[in-house]
UniProtKB/TrEMBL annotation:
One of its GO terms (cellular component) is nucleus. It is an enzyme of class 1 (oxidoreductase). It comes from Neolamprologus brichardi (Fairy cichlid). It holds the Pfam family Thioredoxin_8. It catalyses: [protein]-dithiol + NAD(+) = [protein]-disulfide + NADH + H(+); [protein]-dithiol + NADP(+) = [protein]-disulfide + NADPH + H(+). This is Nucleoredoxin. Residues 8-182 form the Thioredoxin domain. SUPFAM superfamilies: Thioredoxin-like (SSF52833). PANTHER family: NUCLEOREDOXIN.
Length: 291
């Protein structure tokens, strides 16, 4: 993911926010004409009742171009299935010419490149720090996930659309980027074959679901993502990078942005052990070790 270099927040009027500086709804921030690549325009009100992907991307960014190729196929697959789905491209291109060239490859809508204020408000609304980023919204404009990129790449047949977050993920190369999104609980287990991770997922899933439900009720993002990891190159690389012991099972919480880790090395991992570990972490009772 490429970082975005944006002007400081206070260089813009605070029109994307409202007192007491809470975010405005997506429909209000995106309000205005949207483009199609055939130069026709449609009003943003046409998005009502649709699932929406808000796609922050740019032609100069190689991972963006790679994702766009996949996303075009996913978009067509979902539309052909009869789902009400639309994508809005929010460009981070460096010129209108680059925007037009890139947008010509896209079958969806875009905020006009000339409307820098609206593009900036959308960036601020979702706290965009790098591209590509695909934010997925439900039919009411509420966020489903910030991880649209990962979901699309992991589900090429779009069977899991609209890609609600799964409580527990199996660590893989395609979703490892989420380890940098915030604190992550990772349960390392001795598993090499497909299906051997299921008991570990079943062990921590009720705890993950409970936490997701608690924060969803408060309309807040879950403060902890949950992974299970087996014996493979991805897990080995993560252990090496974070200087973790080779023990399995091994219960950890990794906070990459804070370069901190928390390790619970016990002989048996039970739901009670996991729940206590999570509770202590959220209550800031655990002492971090440096990564």
């Amino acid at each position: 993911m490429f970082p975005l270099s944006l002007p400081p927040l206070l260089s813009y009027p605070l029109s994307g926010l409202e007192f007491p500086w809470g975010p405005k709804p997506f429909a209000e921030v995106v309000a205005g004409p949207l483009l199609r690549n055939n130069r026709q325009t449609t009003d943003s009100s046409s998005l009502e009742g649709h699932y929406v992907g808000v796609y922050f991307s740019a032609h100069w960014c190689p991972p963006c171009r790679s994702l766009t190729r996949v996303l075009v196929e996913s978009y067509r697959t979902v539309k052909e299935s009869g789902q009400k789905f639309e994508i809005v491209f929010v460009s981070a291109d460096r010129s209108e010419e680059s925007f037009k060239q890139y947008f010509s490859e896209m079958p969806w809508l875009a905020v006009p490149y000339s409307d820098e204020a609206r593009r900036s408000r959308l960036n601020r609304l979702y706290g965009i720090q790098g591209i590509p980023t695909l934010i997925l919204l439900d039919t009411e404009g509420h966020m489903i996930t910030r991880q649209g990129r990962v979901e699309v790449l992991n589900d090429p047949e779009c069977r899991l659309f609209p890609w609600h977050p799964r409580p527990v993920l199996e660590l893989s190369e395609s979703n490892a980027v989420q380890l940098h999104e915030g604190p992550c609980l990772v349960l390392f287990v001795d598993a090499e074959e497909e299906g051997e991770l299921e008991p570990a997922k079943e062990l921590i899933q009720p705890i993950a679901e409970k936490l997701m439900a608690k924060y969803k009720a408060k309309e807040e993002e879950t403060p902890l993502l949950f992974f299970v990891a087996g014996e493979d190159d991805m897990s080995d690389s993560l252990r090496d990078y974070t200087n973790l012991p080779e023990a399995a099972p091994l219960l950890t919480i990794l906070d990459m942005s804070a370069r901190a880790k928390y390790v619970r090395d016990v002989e048996e991992i039970t739901p009670a052990v996991v729940e206590q570990f999570v509770g202590d972490f959220l209550a800031e009772k655990l002492k971090p070790e440096p990564i």
